[in-house]
Amino acid sequence: MSDQGSKRAPSWFLDRVHGVVEAARAAKEGWYRMRLLHTSDWHLGHTLYDVSREAEHAAFLEWLLDTLEAQSVDALLVAGDVFDTANPSAEAQAAWYQFIARARKRLPQLNITVIGGNHDSAARLDAPDPLFSAMGVRVVGGLPRRPDSLDFERLLVPLHDTRGHIRAWVAAVPYLRPADLPLVDTEGDRLIEGVREVYGLTLEAARRRREPGQALVAMGHCYMVGTELSQLSERRILGGNQHALPVDLFPEDVAYAALGHLHKAQRVGGRESVRYSGSPLPLSLSEAGYRHQVLLVELDGETLGSVKPLTVPRTVDIRRVPERSEVTLEEVLAQLAALPEAEAGDSARAWPYLEVCVSLPRPEPALRRKVEEALVGKAARLVKLTPAYTGTGGALADVQPGISLRERKPEDVFKARYARDYQDPLAPGLLEAFHTLLTEVEENAS
After folding, report:
1. Could you tell me if 50 and 166 lie in one domain?
2. In what residue span(s) does the Calcineurin-like phosphoesterase domain sit (predicted)?
3. Per-position DSSP letters for 105-166, written without gaps between them
């Protein structure tokens, strides 16, 4: 084969050509297939064992801009947790604002809708609203209200095609805190029914506005029934695990529900149209095996056409030595010696994050020193050293290996302390009160 024949156009160029061809065909045939890109849980400002993820986030945001353009996307939906904390660093905020500015410059017709998540400060996200509104960007950090009703002018977002026609309406409901919920007279769960009423009122207002041919889209940041959590970086929200929300919050006339909070991409209740996009980066070592992605959603008129996952390139890998169960210190040191050498000129920021797990018969005071000496000159960054003890008696054998205090959820600590001090089982009402107090503390801290 000749050199000329062996050359192939890059994938982004082929995607761009395909998008243009599809748009032209749609215009000729009198229909329009709207393209949405669903993402969530960016967690800008996140650190992994005190190691900054700034470079990884910068690479993701650059890739996202290229993908929005290459795929001819009409609307970007960001379903919460823009930031990792309610008080993000100046660098994290700069990355957020720079992304919005660059997206507006490169893609002036792109619809951008963002909702707040449980990690975000609602007030912080809402503060630039006058500026964002002038730019045609809708950010709903907290649940907006008027004196006697919800503020549907902010909660309902029209999505326009390239010719300015409205093709869909978004019910952009942010993370709902218990204080946001109406008091519902019900024999069921008060919090769940309060959430149901907020979504029901918002979707009904959207139905009154939309016209034939316009799709109904919902956004939410919540924990749904029958989903899978990442234990080290997520927690059940809305007052605890008694309040997992049912999938029927989103009736069948909702063409697509773009959800955030869970870092593992997944469908809800087996429905193709109700999805978590997942996080674009692994936010804990336990998420290394996830497929980190965004979702390209096509709406065909009022209905869902297709959902296509687009894998986010991983710029920094996560490795575990050994790959599975713990081995002896001698075996661990031998495996570390076999790791690739760092090459001159390499940036340490691109080296894999490394967890080292070792089985020990007794505490080894020199463990960290021996492991760090074995890693000298290796292209790896040690972020976690996990000893597991093989003894069958004593306190160490009763402790779950590999989970440090910083990794334990507040609920776990509360349950352990209660079990230590009291013989009776923990009452559900007491656990519920703990979750309510925890939510108040976290909100006040923001």
Report:
1. yes
2. 34-264
3. HH-TT-EEEEE--TTS-HHHHHTTHHHHHHTTEEEE-S--EETTEE-HHHHEEEEE-TTS-E
Look over the chain and give the mean of its residue pLDDT values, rounded to a whole number. 85
**Which residues lie below 8 Å from residue 29, measured CB to CB, with a gap of 6+?**
none
- Sign of the CA dihedral 128, 155, 72, 161? negative
> Which pLDDT belongs to residue 440?
59
Half-sphere exposure of 158 (CA within 13 A, CB side): 12
Q: Are 221 and 81 in contact (CB under 8 A)?
A: yes
Q: What is the mean pLDDT of residues 214-235?
A: 77
Closest CA to 429 of 170, 228, 242, 205: 242
| Same domain membership, residue 124 and residue 254 | yes
DSSP conformation letters of 399-443: SPTT--GGGS-HHHHHHHHHHHH-SSPPPHHHHHHHHHHHHHHHH
Q: Are residues 385 and 307 in the same domain?
A: no
Asked if residue 90 lies in contact with residue 134, where contact means CB atoms within 8 angstroms, the answer is no
Q: How many residues comprise the chain?
A: 446
Q: Which residue has the tokens 């823009």?
A: 82
Helix, strand, coil percent values for the chain (each to nearest 5): 35, 25, 40
Q: Domain range spanning residue 49?
A: 10-311
Residue that finishes a domain, picked among 311, 343, 361: 311
Q: What was the pLDDT predicted at 244? A: 82
